[in-house]
Write a structure and sequence with these properties.
Layout lengths: L1 E5 L4 E7 L5 E8 L2 H13 L10 E3 L5 H6 L6 E3 L2 H8 L10 H15 L11 H34 L1 H7 L9 H9 L3 H5 L3 H10 L6 H12 L8 H38 L3 H5 L6 H11 L9 H8 L4 E5 L2 E5 L6 H8 L1
Parallel strand pairs: 1-4, 4-5
Antiparallel strand pairs: 1-2, 2-3, 6-7
């Protein structure tokens, strides 16, 4: 028996076929606990058991439905939607499409070509938790940088002194001292009026612990230098926009820091952490990202080349007739590839 599920946001279409391709059952289930229970009952009616679970094909590897299906030893295959669309053409060239029909196509993919597709890895619960945290941390870093870029673009329009003061330092505008000072003085006019004592207090609030005199003198000199300026009302309006962006940037920075702490803590609890940390240049955060993408299922990759292909470091060859081309791989795990370059 083979099962295919065409998933959607509110409901899912299910098809069950036997080894000859005969459609044994089809159903539409809701995306809630009642629907998931109906699905498991349907599978049980057609021979699903803990000892002999029915494999399932679905076009996603995420969500509560997939989590329910992965309980026990059931194999769940996440079929690439592009591949599924190619299989659809095997059953007809009219280009017709329906959700129940897509579920049937997915079930038949397993019936005919299950050997050509890989089931979702059987990672441990801790490894799955690390995956959630590491990916969320990376998303938070990207979000933080996106907001920082918006702040930079805004400062270029009316506040070049702020860019001159912070953009060349490590961390740039995401630094705590940069955000604190800009919140205190969101316009060039206010920045020019800051005293050494006010700057020193702002740096202390940001967590700075040394070199106060040098830094405050540098900042005051920059803020009191001559720059082109907007009219006061326009400058104040830009300042209000900057304060709004700084609130978003503060939240993004805090989220990235919190998720970094959580990801590193979970990673250190994993049995494979010592192995990954033994690699030169790998710290807890980067190690967590690698473990998140590779997982701890030792049967996931057949050999080293399979892992290289998954990471995008193994080249691909296209040879046809007199043409022979060797190039880089575009279909890969982008997060794992990104970690490899850090």
């Amino acid at each position: 028996m083979f099962c295919g599920i065409d998933w959607a946001e509110r409901h899912h279409d299910v098809a069950v076929v036997d080894d000859t391709g005969t459609l044994l059952a089809k159903a539409r289930i809701s995306d809630d606990a009642a629907g998931y229970s109906k699905l498991l009952d349907l599978l049980a009616e057609h021979g699903d058991s803990p000892e002999n679970p029915i494999p399932v094909a679905i076009e996603t590897s995420r969500g509560l439905l997939v989590a329910v299906l992965r309980t026990g030893d059931r194999k769940v295959f996440a079929i690439n939607p592009l591949a599924a669309s190619r299989y659809r053409d095997r059953h007809g060239v009219s280009r017709k499409k329906s959700d129940p029909g897509d579920a049937l196509v997915l079930a038949n993919i397993l019936r005919t070509d299950m050997h050509a597709h890989r089931p979702l890895p059987a990672d441990s619960e801790l490894a799955q938790a690390i995956t959630v945290l590491a990916r969320a941390q990376q998303d938070a870093v990207w979000s933080r940088q996106q907001i920082a870029n918006q702040v930079r673009s805004l400062l270029r329009e009316y506040y070049p002194a702020a860019l001159h003061a912070f953009q060349d330092k490590e961390g740039g505008l995401t630094r705590a001292d940069a955000r604190t000072v800009l919140t205190l003085a969101p316009t060039p006019a206010k920045a020019a009026k800051l005293t050494l004592a006010q700057l020193r207090a702002a740096l202390k609030r940001s967590g700075r612990t040394r070199a106060f005199d040098t830094e405050t003198a540098r900042l005051r000199e920059i803020f009191r230098s001559e720059y082109a300026r907007h009219r006061p009302a326009v400058e104040d309006a830009f300042g209000q926009q900057l304060l709004a962006l700084l609130k978003q940037l503060d939240a993004a920075c805090q989220a990235a820091d919190d998720l970094t702490t959580a990801a590193e803590a979970a990673f250190k609890e994993h049995a494979d952490s010592d192995i990954l940390l033994s690699f030169p240049g790998l710290g807890p955060l980067l190690g967590a990202r690698l473990l998140a993408e590779i997982g701890d299922d030792r049967t996931r990759f057949a050999d080293a080349r399979a892992l290289k292909s998954y990471a995008g470091s193994a080249p691909i060859t296209r040879a046809s007739g007199k043409k022979h081309f060797v190039g880089r791989r575009f279909v890969k795990n982008n997060r794992l590839m990104h970690a490899g370059f850090l």
